[in-house]
Amino acid sequence: MTTDPTTTYARWGHHHTRPLGQGMEGTVHHLGPGPLGEDLIAKAWHTRTATDLQPLQAFYDELATHATTTTPPSPSSPTYREPP
Fold first, then answer.
1. What CA–CA distance (Å, rounded) separates 31 from 17?
2. What is the pTM of this model?
């Protein structure tokens, strides 16, 4: 079993990832071109589950319905995958 998220990203078809940052809750990577899109950013959470992330997803969905001067993150499917 690996905890390296780049292994999962490669299985998704994104073989040219690069780390953007790491914090207490997870690691953020630029996925590069692949079947999920051309310019995606992914966050691999260290300990959160899909259930833990539902309130965050609901917040982003609600935020996206309001006019703002910035664009909120827009998680796209798949938004959560169990570690391998």
1. 4
2. 0.66
Residues 6+ apart with CB under 8 A from 7: 84
Give CA–CA dist 27/46, Å, rounded.
8
pLDDT digit string, tens, across residues 39-49: 888 888 888 88
Question: Do the beta carbons of residue 74 and residue 59 sit within 8 Å?
Answer: no
Q: What is the DSSP letter of 36?
A: T
Kindly list the domain boundaries of the chain, sorted by start residue: 5-64
Taking the alpha carbons at both ends of the chain, their separation in whole angstroms is 6
pLDDT, tens only, 7-59 = 888 988 989 899 999 999 899 999 988 888 888 888 888 888 888 888 888 88
DSSP state string for 5-33? HHHHHHHTT----EEEEE-SSEEEEE--S
